[in-house]
Amino acid sequence: MKYGHFDDQTREYVITRPDTPMPWINYIGCENYFGILSATAGGYSYYKDARLRRLTRGRYNNVPMDFGGRYIYVRDNASGAFFSPSWMPVRGKLDAYECRHGMGYSIISGKKDGIAASTRYFVPVGENLEIWDVTVTNERAAAADLSLFSVAEFCLWDAQDDATNFQRNFSTGEVEVVDEVIYHKTEYRERRNHFAFFASSEKLAGFDTQREAFLGPWRGWDDPKAVAEGKSSASIAHGWQPIASNHVKLSLKPGESRRIVFFLGYHENPKDQKFDPPGSQTVNKAGVLPTIAKFRDPKNVDAAFAALKVFWDGLLAKCQVSTPDIHTDRMVNVWNAYQCMATFNMSRSASTFESGIGRGLGFRDSNQDLLGFVHMVPERARQRILDLAATQFASGGAYHQYQPMTKKGNNDIGGGFNDDPHWLIIGVSQYLKETGDFSILDEAVPFDTTPGTEVPLYDHLKRSIQYALDNIGPHGLPLIGQADWNDCLNLNCFSDEPGQSFQCLKGKDGKRAESVFIGGLMVHSAKELSALAREHGRPADEEFYAGVARDMEEVVKKHGWDGEWFLRAYDDFGHKVGSKECDEGKIFIEPQGYCVIAGIGLGDGRARQALDSVKKYLATPHGIVLQQPAYSRYRIELGEISSYPPGYKENAGIFCHNNPWVIIGETILGNGDQAHDYYSRICPSAREEISDLHKNEPYVFSQMIAGRDAPTHGEAKNSWLTGTAAWTYYAATQWILGIRPEYRGLRVAPVIPKTWDGFTATRIYRGVTYDITVKRAGQGNRIALTVDGKTIDGSVVPPPPAGVKSVKVEAVLS
Ligand code: BGC
Ligand code: NOJ
């Protein structure tokens, strides 16, 4: 069953009924001002940091789940009846409903009793504000006398404090209303110099800023007193819960439409300009008045919307493909690329499943996210890399997360996740292959964001490997530390407190538990660093890191091979994890996919055997599960992984993030059919028909799909913010379609299904547009390339002579 459909032409997903199985959200904002926006106008906004600078309030785990948002009420003043065009929060029956989620905007429309209202929500490029552009149409035969109410509820900035510290916060709220603009200035009088503002393009009939006054005692958002009575009360919030609500009156002739623009923004004054006049407690508005004047004019709103389209068209144009598979096309061309920008912007902080107060930007996550967006925003990728590297310790270890507002590492989680440092090498390598910007390696970057400790970025990469070399266990494999990619494999955690996995080294010296997965990852990262050193003119380093990779490869083969697949780990007692000797958790997905990516066992049949074992033991119609058999009981020596009921999350759920590792592995082994088959199993568009089972948005990947041991096998959770976005995008574009940036050119080496007769692609790479046509002449993966009419050897298209801006590539597969 479906709840909507893709509109591939407009790059929108069209939701046609509001009661989707989960909130189906979109994101607005792509730079500093962000919002979550559901198909029923739910969600909240923030500036830069979902925890520290939250503008509007989100309600967590609510009933219904998606509550609190950017709500509009339309009231018929003759009858007193009212509705919300976004269905929520009034609900009730609408005569028509539609939500179009597009690139950085959503248009939510509803109709009732001959009155239609449609709101286009978006954040203009370059602005710290969001627009609610409402058009109301009277489709009746008679004139209509209407009232429009808008409402947003402010969060008192620090979302964590806002959700807990009521004894204080019920007394701090402050607003100011000047020239029909509502200014939210809670905490402005202290150290802060920022405020929010809410304004409208129309003359107001009234406003409210105190929640209780707008809603009325004991009433909810579905039936606010102001709306029911058709009258705002000009309330001024003192403490309690400040809101911004505008009341606009409209008299519409039959067939007449009117447009009303509301906008909510954030402003920061320079530190010394706190109050105006000095000494008073009034917000200094000078800096924001021109912006308010600008967006009160709908012409400027239209221009901003047009600019947003241009912005997204430009980003997506970097890679466009046309294949025989509609799902591949729409994911690669639109939605997967779009999701990669969301993971870049949000990391894992704010979504339906992430509260925005829990996590900042993750070190491993953000480095891996680079794989999916570096070609779209290379300059921003550059900055992200430098920010991440600055949270590395001098040992080469790294903070596991940092806050985007302060860019400082999070002390409450600390470091010691021993896979973390390797991802920096992988992220930086990808950046260099895409951009060729080797100057980044010379940038001076501190350790632990401490001034005076700067070394070139290149040295940070070397420390990453040094950290691994300094943390080797009894079998010669890397020590796992707090955990590796699998946050829940806590082999040093003998605590009785589930959920305490991040503190789990307590009482343990961490000197025995080893990770075969990190072994594979290290082979990959050391090979990457060796190649990077070669390109950077460091032959001694090139050789050294090649040696590191070779040595670790031998260790993995010797102590990390179980006979039919790669082992997962050794625990603190030296017991194998992920072995046929285990009663449960005999085979894990991570080392199979990743060791093949690292090139381990390609020549001796182990790679093929490992992936065959994946197919035999782990693959399901809904994707590949993380391990089998699932742990049926809690095992203190393995940690959080066994705390989940079988089939969920790391305990044998389909953890989509590592499915692309196997997909890439299959392409490395030349098996395009299997690679694309696995891709399709987790691909949201390909799962659209089973939306009632899948539940999450059919336009973005989810982190997890319940595994075969779960009663809800096939049900997805944790959509949007997942490493799945970058890895599936990377797997599809660079390995299945095979269009792969390398240091010395663009490789074109597709490994596509046998049934495909070819495909075309346009890829903008280092400022040159490559028009690529791939044709199948035989069933294999052998490639013959013609570049601008000339046959070349191999599959790497070298950079064209200076000044040439477009290149035609023809590839024949046989
Ligand atoms: C989840 C992991 C996640 C970790 C970090 C765990 O509870 O199962 O998937 O990586 O929390 O927050
Ligand atoms: C989600 C986390 O964000 C990621 O860092 C981790 O690798 C996976 N869960 C697996 O535990």
TrEMBL record:
<dbReference type="Pfam" id="PF06165">
    <property type="entry name" value="GH94_b-supersand"/>
</dbReference>
<dbReference type="InterPro" id="IPR012341">
    <property type="entry name" value="6hp_glycosidase-like_sf"/>
</dbReference>
<protein>
    <submittedName>
        <fullName>Glycosyl transferase</fullName>
    </submittedName>
</protein>
<dbReference type="InterPro" id="IPR033432">
    <property type="entry name" value="GH94_catalytic"/>
</dbReference>
<keyword id="KW-0328">Glycosyltransferase</keyword>
<dbReference type="InterPro" id="IPR008928">
    <property type="entry name" value="6-hairpin_glycosidase_sf"/>
</dbReference>
<dbReference type="InterPro" id="IPR052047">
    <property type="entry name" value="GH94_Enzymes"/>
</dbReference>
<dbReference type="Pfam" id="PF17167">
    <property type="entry name" value="Glyco_hydro_94"/>
</dbReference>
<dbReference type="InterPro" id="IPR037825">
    <property type="entry name" value="GH94N_CBP"/>
</dbReference>
<feature type="domain" description="Glycosyl hydrolase 94 catalytic">
    <location>
        <begin position="311"/>
        <end position="738"/>
    </location>
</feature>
<dbReference type="InterPro" id="IPR037018">
    <property type="entry name" value="GH65_N"/>
</dbReference>
<dbReference type="GO" id="GO:0016740">
    <property type="term" value="F:transferase activity"/>
</dbReference>
<dbReference type="InterPro" id="IPR010383">
    <property type="entry name" value="Glyco_hydrolase_94_b-supersand"/>
</dbReference>
<keyword id="KW-0808">Transferase</keyword>
<feature type="domain" description="Glycosyl hydrolase 94 supersandwich">
    <location>
        <begin position="11"/>
        <end position="281"/>
    </location>
</feature>
<dbReference type="InterPro" id="IPR011013">
    <property type="entry name" value="Gal_mutarotase_sf_dom"/>
</dbReference>
